[in-house]
Here is the input.
Amino acid sequence: MEEVGKFALKLERYRYNLIASISWVIFGSIFAVAVMVLSALMLMGYNWSVVALLIPAGVVSLLVFHKVRRIVSPIDSKRWKREWIFFVLPFLVSYALIPQFLSLSDLQMSAYFSTVWYPSLGVAFLLVGLIIERKDEMLVTKTMLPAGVTTLTTSVPLALLCLNVRSYYDIIAVGLIATAPMLSIYTACALYGFFKGYKALFH
Here is the structure.
C-alpha cells in the first residue's frame, strides 16, 4: 500500500507539472494570434487596435491559465489567485504611466505601444517567479524566473529597433519580430517543464 501511495503522489505531481507546461503553449498561442491580427489591422490603418486586442488577449490568457490551474489541482489555488495582480501591474505601468515621461516621435511612440507588451511580460514572469512560483512545492521545474530574465534580455535589441523605425511597416515588423522570441521562450519552457518533470518524478 505504501508503494501504491507513493506512486499516486508521483502521478499527481506529474499531472500537475504536465498541465503547467501545457499552460505555456496555451498562453503563447493566444498572444501570438493577437499580435498577428494586430499587425494586419495596423496595415489597414487601425492603429488603435493595439489596446483593443492586447488587453483582451491578456485577460483571456489569464482566465485560461487559472482554469487550467484549477483543473490540475486545488492545492495551490489560493496562492495562484494572486498571480493576476503581477501580470496586470507591469502592463498598467507600461501603457499608462511610462508614456507620460517619454519624449518620442509619433512613429517611435507607435512602435513603443506595439511592442512594450513583450518586456511587460518579462517583468510579469519575474514577479510571478520570485513571489509565487518559487513557493509552489508541487512544481518540479520553476520556469517563470528564467523566462522573465530571457524575455527582458531579448527586449534590449527590440528597444533599439523601435528607436529606428521609419514607417508603419517597420513598426509591424518589430511587433512580429517580438513574437518570434516570445513563442521560442514559451515553447522552450513547455518542453523543459515536460521532460524535466518526467525525469525528476519517474527516474
Notes: The mean pLDDT is 80. The CA atoms of residues 99 and 109 lie 8 Å apart. The chain has eight helices and no strands. The two ends are 20 Å apart (CA to CA).
